[in-house]
Design a protein that fits this description.
The protein is mainly α. The chain has helices at residues 4-24, 30-53, 64-84, 88-98, 102-151, 159-171, 176-186, 194-205, 207-220, 224-252, 257-267, 274-282, 288-311. The mean pLDDT is 84.
């Protein structure tokens, strides 16, 4: 029987490799990468987020194991900001250290490793994972942008106005807005009409391959050697430190068995491709992030196997 690690990660590695080949062959220019990343960020991502969240009934979910996961996320996110300073770059790096590939890798991997019971726990996390983490990251990024604009001599706003503008921008945004809209729609008990659901499904299905191909193209067009040390450090934090923090928080909260195992394995997932889209949109760490996504994904063939072996003892 094929290893669940290989089965889950092989398609991701292959897509990044194909993007890398396309970049090496110069089939896609650097300008086209930025334009395509905007297409993914502004169209494909909202379609996937809205369609996914439109089916979530929050009233029937148990969020107890999620607390351990977010204790690890908050600790790691805050530590990154503390070490690297409060700016756009550190906010994107903090997101990279905490945001994993929960859809394309997480769902098939947890399904193969833990079965349907594991998926229920994963989906419980997923209902709040994206909306909380990406909205929080967007808020921090918007605050950092406002701070940097003020420091550069731009128009200064009061703290209350800055927070208000950041909150508004973090909600009226291609990531949080479709999540919130989808969750609200789900609570009505209605289903998306097929006439609308089919194009949404087609758009959503293009997100993962397009984002991963763009990661590969960007990696091919950057000097990875110059980013190797930073990519190794970021990959180690995401693939190993994140699950270690979640495991510690889980034990402190008295969790054990399958719920804790799923949370720890989910924390060990490699860096999600959405972080690459954030780095492109906010124009920071544009070489480091794609290198880290690729390296983290390849390294996960080893690190996920290690974490999975360890959680089986929990």
């Amino acid at each position: 029987m094929q290893s669940p690690v290989v089965s889950s990660l092989a398609p991701v590695v292959i897509l990044i490799a194909l993007g890398f080949l396309a970049g090496r062959m110069r089939w896609v220019s650097g300008t086209a990468v930025k334009e395509l990343s905007n297409l993914v960020f502004l169209l494909l991502t909202p379609a996937l987020l809205f369609r996914t969240m439109s089916k979530v009934q929050l009233a029937h979910l148990d969020f107890t194991p999620v607390a351990a996961y977010f204790i690890g996320v908050i600790a790691l996110f805050a530590a990154t900001l503390l070490v690297c300073g409060f700016n756009r770059r550190s906010a994107v790096l903090a997101l990279a250290a905490t945001f994993g590939n929960t859809v394309m890798i997480g769902i098939p991997f947890v399904s193969l490793a833990f079965g349907e019971a594991g998926l229920v726990t994963l989906f419980t996390l997923y209902t709040v994972h994206t909306v909380l983490l990406l909205t929080s990251a967007t808020l921090v990024l918007e605050l950092a942008v406002a701070r940097e604009e003020g420091a550069a001599g731009g128009p200064r706003r009061s703290m209350a106005r800055t927070v208000f503008m950041a909150l508004r921008n973090s909600v009226i945004h291609p990531i949080p807005l479709p999540i919130i809209a989808g969750m609200l729609f789900a609570q009505t008990g209605l289903a998306i009409p097929p006439l609308l659901d089919t194009p949404l499904q087609l758009l959503a299905s293009g997100l993962a391959p397009m984002a991963l191909l763009l990661v590969g193209v960007t990696v091919a067009q950057t000097h990875i050697g110059g980013q190797l040390r930073g990519a190794l450090a970021l990959s180690a934090v995401k693939n190993l430190a994140h699950p270690a923090l979640v495991a510690t928080a889980g034990w402190a909260l008295g969790l054990s068995g399958l719920p804790l195992a799923v949370m720890v394995v989910t924390a060990a997932l490699p860096i999600g491709a959405n972080v690459f889209l954030f780095s492109q949109r906010y124009k920071v760490a544009e070489e480091l992030v794609p290198a880290s996504v690729a390296l983290s994904t390849v390294a996960a063939l080893v690190t996920l196997s290690l974490v999975l072996a360890l959680v089986q003892r929990l």
